[in-house]
Amino acid sequence: xxxxxxxxxxxxxxxxxxxxxxxxxxxxxxxxxxxxxxxxxxxxxxxxxxxxxxxxxxxxxxxxxxxxxxxxxxxxxxxxxxxxxxxxxxxxxxxxxxxxxxxxxxxxxxxxxxxxxxxxxxxxxxxxxxxxxxxxxxxxxxxxxxxxxxxxxxxxxxxxxxxxxxxxxxxxxxxxxxxxxxxxxxxxxxxxxxxxxxxxxxxxxxxxxxxxxxxxxxxxxxxxxxxxxxxxxxxxxxxxxxxxxxxxxxxxxxxxxxxxxxxxxxxxxxxxxxxxxxxxxxxxxxxxxxxxxxxxxxxxxxxxxxxxxxxxxxxxxxxxxxxxxxxxxxxxxxxxxxxxx
Length: 341
Known about the structure:
The chain is α/β, with parallel strands linked by helices. The chain has ten helices and 14 strands. Helix 2 crosses helix 3.
């Protein structure tokens, strides 16, 4: 493993993907990516007594499925990198406490999946671990309760607002070779352009995505055209439009191969999700479901996954603080040959 340029780590050997799990709720099961989730739930509580416990259960299911697909047991896993949106990351701690795996709690807001994958990959590539798991989740109802208004209030949503996905995703990375691997990681720098509107997270996070993508391209010498997919999450409609404009002004054209997890997980108009999806579980479930399955099929060979997060809290916003953005990036590569027609 070595550092390239100012911000990027090249993993040699790479960290190889051996298993993944993706779970989602009812609204997500009605969206365009329903077939790519391992399972979906119609009940918002998943049979639990609270939404927070339901979110913990999503994490448990995702991790156990990923480990099972890797033909391992929880006792075989050396580290787990996990986080979520709730205070003290309770979805992760309570969801994973019974697995008895060394736990590294993370908070990257909606960038947590890329942050966790990046850190797990660094541990594996460096030899600090033979394997590691990255997982995160979100839940519409638990997020609304903590960050916005009680559901009973029925507040009107602005057009720029995004819908927190009820979903979770987990991935197992190992030193043992497999067809799909993480080859490079760029940990992002915080950006703050003064956005204070909590209903416009896409605008707050877009500069962070632009910063990290620019850092990566500058460090590695790659261009956007080297990738089948440049995937952000979750900028939604507003943030994605801003990102493309910012990248274009910086000399990087990502128009043809950029997509955003928040735009993919729902049909914005049919499902009335306004600017699209958000939440840690949105990008986690899209990557661990749709993206990795497409890479296994040979559809995608090189994917840049740049998850974005808003590092804020209701308390900070009530005190007049602006929203700090962050974006972390992992380069996923597949050796699976493309299918011929």
